[in-house]
Automatic annotation (TrEMBL):
InterPro entries registered for this protein in UniProt: AB_hydrolase_fold
Low complexity bias locations: 313-329
Disordered: annotated span: 302-329
Bilayer-crossing regions: 6-21, 28-46, 52-69, 89-113
UniProt-recorded name of the protein: Acetylhydrolase
PANTHER family: PLATELET-ACTIVATING FACTOR ACETYLHYDROLASE
Organism: Saccharibacillus alkalitolerans
Entry keyword set: Hydrolase, Lipid degradation, Lipid metabolism, Membrane, Transmembrane, Transmembrane helix
Length: 515
């Protein structure tokens, strides 16, 4: 719960107790309770915003109001007989149950907050729409429509950078409806996500502390979106990286373009046990998306030509649109902020799930990426790595993702698959990644985690992690530590005096370093 929600809860529960006690159920106490409850409610709504999960707490305000009205309009004060013990017990039990429900509801559906950033920079963010004129848009009814993506940047800004904290979701209502539809639950469960704020400052200027910054591409999971792992992307930006999150339209929960067009999720893979469907999705859509963004980043860097000084990242840059630049590529606005400030000789990639597969395939085929991390993604795509990736690489996996019992018999029955087919499919994926650590690379396995642990999803509700015994913030801390150490060594060239890159086993993770 947020700070004013806690104050509101404490005060209103105290009011609830006072109004239940006969000695304090007077006009004076009711007036005091009503004033205090109303003040707390108005302050909470003003500072933090109202949400439906707090309605039971808000409603306690009615209790002292009712007591006051009863006392005011009573014709005469009559001696109130002491109620029977059974009635008092019943009233007390009802109040206890009501108060418990009023507290639990905003706790299990919180307005969650991200851990404080630990890097030396504050973080800015801006999103652009870029269009690849060489490829058609996926699932477009008009064959002439070109491939359009949203690309979100997180980047270092200065301590005194102005601007409001950016929202976690740019279109929360659309997101909630799409996410709920995909999960088969009511959209109301995700309503409070409209109030979640990140640590990033919207459209803040790029820090002038350094001429150029290394780049980390972020590729999300299937049915995710560019901000799916904000716990990680913001932290990397605070450490001095320009993080570029690709929103693979059609493979997201939903994508809302600047012109208002909404592109839903298309299940191009995953409806049956078929590694080949994911292979094609990686080869035909996700990897070309990554390479297109790499092309555009090089173009933006080249536009610097000596003009990418400290003032080039002015805060007046606007979000891009398909027709805002040459050939509809939509990069002119990005160039206003980042021209000459991107170090294309130090670019890496981190991908989650399907984005991890895209990371591996791009590392195997594009020398512009110097290092990469796959977070719990199968090695989907046409390229194989029988002798390792061939450049610095880390595979981070949950200990439960590719186990024989990762899918129940019921889940397999829903997609018409047998246990033997599942074992064969997973076995092929395990064989593909068997040499991930070859050449001095790393395989990190996190204990007590699942596939969602690499995203922000476990923060949405403690119910998502408590039932399975997961520690989402602990997992996030380990992921951040290893990712920072890895890119610090292989992109920044830093000396890493951290055990994070030394093979060994800790309580919550195991690291294997290949030969």
């Amino acid at each position: 719960m947020r700070s004013m929600e806690i104050v509101l809860a404490a005060l209103n529960l105290a009011v609830l107790v006072l109004m239940l006690r006969r000695k304090t159920r007077t006009k004076g106490w009711a007036a005091a309770g009503l004033a205090g409850s109303a003040a707390a409610l108005l302050t909470q709504v003003w500072l933090e915003g109202a949400r439906w999960e707090l309605i039971p707490l808000y409603a306690i305000l009615l209790l002292p109001a009712a007591v006051m009205l009863r006392r005011i309009f009573a014709r005469e004060e009559r001696e109130v007989k002491k109620p029977r013990l059974s009635r008092r017990l019943l009233a007390g039990t009802a109040a206890l149950l009501y108060g418990t429900a009023a507290i639990l509801l905003p706790v299990v559906l919180p307005v969650f907050a991200f851990e404080p950033l630990k890097g030396p920079y504050r973080v800015g963010t801006v999103t652009y729409a870029w269009t690849d004129q060489t490829r058609p848009q996926v699932h477009a009814q008009n064959p002439a429509k070109r491939r359009e993506l949203l690309v979100q940047f997180w980047y270092p800004t200065d301590e005194d950078a102005a601007g409001a904290a950016a929202p976690y979701l740019s279109d929360p209502r659309v997101f909630a409806e799409a996410f709920a539809g995909n999960e088969g639950v009511p959209p109301l469960l995700f309503d409070s996500m409209r109030l979640v704020r990140t640590h990033s400052r919207a459209a803040a200027p790029l820090s002038a502390a350094k001429r150029e910054y290394p780049v980390v591409i972020y590729s999300h999971g299937n049915r995710g979106w560019s901000g799916q792992s904000t716990f990680l992307t913001e932290q990397l930006a605070s450490e001095g990286y320009i993080v570029v999150g690709i929103e693979h339209a059609g493979g997201t929960n939903t994508t809302v373009f600047p012109d208002g067009e909404v592109m839903p999720f298309y299940a191009d893979a995953g409806q049956e046990l078929d590694n080949g469907a994911f292979d094609r999705l990686a080869d035909d859509v996700w990897v070309p998306d990554v390479k297109f963004v790499l092309d555009r980043l090089e173009e933006i860097a080249d536009r610097g030509g000596g003009r990418g000084g400290p003032e080039s990242g002015g805060s007046d840059a606007q979000s891009g649109s398909p027709g805002s630049a040459e050939a509809g590529s939509g990069i002119s606005e990005a160039a206003e902020r980042f021209a000459g400030r991107i170090d294309t000789e130090r670019m890496g990639i981190v991908g989650y799930s399907m984005g991890g597969a895209a990371a591996v395939q791009t590392l195997l085929s594009d020398d512009r990426l110097k290092a990469g991390i796959d977070m719990d993604g199968g090695f989907y795509g046409s390229l194989r790595a029988p002798n390792g990736i061939g450049r610095p690489f880390m595979l981070i996996s949950a200990d439960s993702t590719f186990r024989p019992d990762s899918m129940s018999d019921e889940a397999l029955a829903q997609i018409g698959a047998s246990r033997s087919e599942y074992d064969e499919t997973v076995g092929e994926l395990l064989e593909r990644q068997a040499h991930a650590a070859d050449g001095g690379n790393y395989v990190l396995t996190l204990a007590h985690t699942d596939h969602t642990s690499f995203s922000d999803a476990p923060l949405y509700s403690p119910l998502l992690s408590a039932a399975s015994g997961l520690d989402p913030r602990g997992a996030h801390a380990v992921i951040r530590t290893y990712t920072e150490a890895f890119f610090g060594k292989y992109l920044k060239g830093e000396r890493v005096d951290l055990s994070a890159l030394e093979a060994g086993t800790e309580n919550d993770h195991t690291l294997i370093k290949g030969q």
